Known about the structure:
- The chain is an alpha/beta fold.
- It folds into two domains: 2-128 and 300-339, Quinone Oxidoreductase, Chain A, domain 1; 146-279, Rossmann fold, CATH 3.40.50.
- It has helices at 41-45, 90-93, 134-154, 169-180, 192-200, 214-221, 237-246, 266-271, 288-297, 314-322, and strands at 2-8, 11-16, 26-35, 58-65, 77-80, 83-84, 104-105, 117-121, 125-127, 161-165, 184-188, 205-207, 227-232, 247-255, 276-279, 305-309, 328-331, 338-339.
- The strands form four sheets. Strands 3, 4, 5, 8, 9, 16, 17 and 18 form an eight-stranded mixed beta sheet that branches. A six-stranded parallel beta sheet has the order 12-11-10-13-14-15, sandwiched between helices.
- Helix 6 (214-221) packs parallel to helix 7.
- 47% of the residues are buried.
- One zinc ion binds at residues 37, 39, 56-57, 142.
Amino acid sequence: MRAVKLVGNARVEVVDVSKPKVKRGWVVVKVGASAICGSDLHAYFAPEGDSFTPGHEVAGEVAEVGEQVARIKPGDRVAINNMVSCGICKFCQQGDWIFCNDVQVIGGDIDGGDAEYVAIPERNCFPLPNDLSFGEGALLGDAVGTPYRAIKALGANGAHIVAVFGLGPVGLGALLILKFLNCEVLAVEVSSYRQKMAKKLGADMVVDPNEKNPVDALKKYTRGEGVDIAIDCAGKDITENQALDCVKKRGKVAFVGENKTAHIRPSDQFIRKELTVIGSWYFNAGEHEELIRLVRRGVKTEEIITHRFSLEKAQEAFSTFVSGESGKVIFVPARNGYCQE
Ligand SMILES: [Zn+2]
Ligand SMILES: [Zn+2]
């Protein structure tokens, strides 16, 4: 079968590899859609690349099932939860697969979905109803699931003014969910392409940080008070600081964008403002049904997919994603050539 490989220094190859074999308790899924994510870019730019096939936001149709697979059968449409956890530790038993110390993420620790087929444990497969596309199913697996978990923890609702920093796929997903919840959403984004997308998806104000200071703009919008909630999806020192600075006293901030270090000023930024600052990472399998319900009730996840590529166009797909002139870029392995919808 064909599979995408990140071979280092932003080079992408499509190679022939053997089709995965079913193991006990595992299934093989024919990939219907697999999305490129910002977290693929570390391996994309790294000189050594990555030996594993990328792709951790995947949906498709079950092709084969291994021994002791009880619930899933060939032909089932499934969305994949990408955290292959041990299943027996304290965290797994509590449903917190995200905390499992032995977790392996597909597309990083084991082969992922940018291929014709992907192998995955049965328990990572969640039914995808016929009225949801494979693209929508793939996006549940990160671009929608990740912001959803943060928004749920923050308790955002229609009474809140929410600032979103970074309108990449996760930020766009956050915007969709927040607008669905009837929040007033203020988006801060450097890319003009994504600024336009944010406007189209209903952002009440879009701030270009190259034109004006986002904290000043957000304060002005709220008559000096600050926003109720800020969500940082950019994962940068500057945006994390702006998120802390733009919220009102006793406001809430979520850090969602990954970042190793940042310099913050605890006294001014959150001790004396009595802020609630949370971290939020991915989402748990138990939230899958909630995500399906959200999409069915009107969170139009398809709207953040801007490009669809066949596997053979993998280099172009990654370049398009990296350019910032895109929302979510997905592989549709069954198709030939490029198709923009
Ligand atoms: Zn991702
Ligand atoms: Zn575990």
